Amino acid sequence: QNKPHDYRPKYHYTAPKNWVNDPNGMVYLDGEYHLFYQYNPFGNVWGHMSWGHAVSKDLKNWETLPVALPEFDNADGTQTMIFSGCAVIDSMNTSGFFEKGFTKGMVAIFTSHIEGKAQHQSIAYSADKGRTWKRYDKNPVLDLGMKDFRDPNVIWYPEKQVWIMTVVKPLEYIAQFYESKDLKKWTLLSEFGKQGDMTKIWECPSLTKVPVEGSTETKWVLMISSGHRQKDYLAMQYFVGDFDGKTFTPQKQNEILYVDEGKDFYAAIPFNNLPKSHAKPIMIGWINDWEYAREIPTGDTWRGGFSVAREFSLKKTTDGLRLVQQPIIQLKNAQKAAFSVKNKVVDGTYEVPFKGEVFDLTLEIQPQEAKVVTLNVFQSQGEATAIRYDANTQELSLDRTRSGQVNFHPRFSSVERVKVPLKDGKLKIRLLADKSILELFAQDGEHALTEWIFPTKNEGGITLTSEGGKAKITTLSVHTVR
Ligand code: FRU
Fold first, then answer.
1. For the whole model, what pTM was predicted?
2. Is the C-beta atom of 204 inside 6 A of ligand 1?
3. pLDDT per residue over 216-235, tens digit each?
4. Which of 149, 268, 290, 293 is the most buried (most CB within 10 A)?
5. Across all residues in the chain, what is the average pLDDT?
6. How far is it, in rounded angstroms, from Cα 230 to Cα 225?
7. Cβ neighbours for 234, distance < 8 A, ≥ 6 positions apart
8. CA distance 188 to 5
9. C-alpha dihedral over 178, 179, 183, 187, to 10 degrees?
10. How confident is the model at residue 333 (pLDDT cuts 50, 70, 90)?
11. 4 — pLDDT class (breaks 50, 70, 90)
12. Whether 234 contacts 226, CB under 8 Å
């Protein structure tokens, strides 16, 4: 049996101890990428929500810093928790919180949550790169007198020289857009909602200007963490459209699109203030699903983790614009694969001569005569996670029913499927594996599936099987990850 600590990922950020959920306040400043996150400083289940903090110089290696914004007590004996939100760099000191001419002020905009009573939006500021914070003495800055009103995400909108906030009324499936000149006084611009996937409440919205591949165009993407109607669990949906500084208009009415088809990618938000050297926006998501998040068997120390940073853009397809995602990771040796093979015909089972639990695998395969092609990873006696392609239905699936520990929650054991048409007769997948986290991408980032697995053995075998005829591996390469 694995000991619980064996599940800790090597290149995905996890907090040294305790519970985490949503990424918050992701922002770049002065050579540092900041990842704040929903954090319980006192235990490894949800509670006492505060903002934890980690920084990175390269989006790959993270250093944990002390809690940035802790839960606090109110005069009437209630507590205010710091729920999800964002951070911006107020380089023109629009808020007036900083000294004249100071360009590096950081402002956090978050939901102040008073259990059972209220949710409103509040702000705090830091003049030392997010290390120490002061809460604004006139909080909240936006209050509708509602119990459910949360997750503000703010961007700078240069055309109007204003800040734009997207925030949700979760139970009403409504995202609202507000503008402000100083981050303190907010004016409602418009609402968008009552469409798309409404099978679960709406949380953690974000509005991002996104480049369209192979053109100089940009479009706006509105992401919402909500549900997946075919699968009845939590997932992120997105809308592609235009934003004119006031209203968001989707490219098509009633189009339902998902960011990730796995069970464990939620509450992702993009970075603010990225340097020009990044041509594309970058997001990080929480790896977990509220249904069983509290019960994942990672032991007594830590619970929950974050995806690797993902660059995203839009691609033109015959159905309209679609999201594509590319992971940003650091290979041990980008030039030299730990194992690779080219143009190999598989008829039956091929045992890949590489074993591991921490790797980056790329497979390009032509199913040819095969009806089903299966890549088994984390394989050992009686156990494997199966990534399967069914050539008849053109479905790619991630099957964790035999992946190891699955019985800790009735909804964990599952097979997730997504339609992935072949391209020139080929399927291309990239699998980031990291102890207990799998991030699967297909057809150059056009599809993503992210999931936890909890193997009970450490054998890390990999096999590839073809059923119903021969298949041809064009390329298979495995890299180790730093
Ligand atoms: C999403 C969420 C947010 C909220 C936070 C509380 O996972 O429910 O809506 O701000 O978690 O921890």
1. 0.97
2. yes
3. 999 999 999 999 999 889 99
4. 268
5. 96
6. 15
7. 200, 225, 226, 227, 228, 263, 266, 289, 290, 291
8. 47
9. -70
10. confident
11. very low
12. yes
Expressed in angstroms and rounded, the spacing between residue 428 Cα and the centre of ligand 1 is: 34
What is the residue-wise DSSP string for 59-96? SSSEEEEEEEE--EE-TTS-EEEEEEEEEEE-TT-TTS
Q: Give which of 204, 139, 193 is closest to 167, Cα–Cα.
A: 204
Closest ligand 1 atom, residue 266 Cα:
7
**Amino acid in the structure at residue 262:** G
Rounded to whole angstroms, how far apart are CA atoms 88 and 99?
17
pLDDT for 89-146, tens place per residue? 999 999 999 999 999 999 999 999 999 899 999 999 999 999 999 999 999 999 999 9
Residue 6 — very low, low, confident or very high, per pLDDT cuts 50/70/90?
confident
CA 198, 199, 202, 208 torsion: positive or negative?
negative
Residue 277: pLDDT over 90: yes
Region of 36 (left: φ > 0; alpha: ψ -120 to 50; beta: rest) is beta
Give the C-alpha separation, 110 to 47, whole Å. 16
Residues 6+ apart with CB under 8 A from 329: 11, 60, 308, 360, 432, 481
Tokens standing for 268?
């992702």
Position of tokens 């208009």? 249
pLDDT digits (tens, 9 = 90+) for 434-476: 999 999 999 999 999 999 999 998 899 999 999 999 999 999 9
Given the residues 22, 264, 289, 434, select the one marked as catalytic.
22
Instruction: Say which amino acid occupies 119.
Output: Q
Ligand 1 near 150 CB (within 6 A): yes
CA 330 to chain centre: 18
CA of 204 to the centre of ligand 1 (A): 7
Q: Choose one of 20, 21, 81, 233 to mutate for the ligand 1 pocket test, by most ligand atoms within 8 angstroms of C-beta.
A: 21
Distance CA 354, CA 361 (A): 11
How many angstroms separate the alpha carbon of residue 149 from the centre of ligand 1? 11
Q: Whose CA is nearest to atom 8 of ligand 1?
A: 203
Which H or E run contains 333?
none
Q: Which DSSP category does 281 fall into?
A: -
Q: Are 461 and 333 in contact (CB under 8 A)?
A: no
* ipTM summary value: 0.99
How large a percentage of the chain has pLDDT more than 90? 94
Q: Which atom of ligand 1 is nearest to the CA of 83?
A: 10
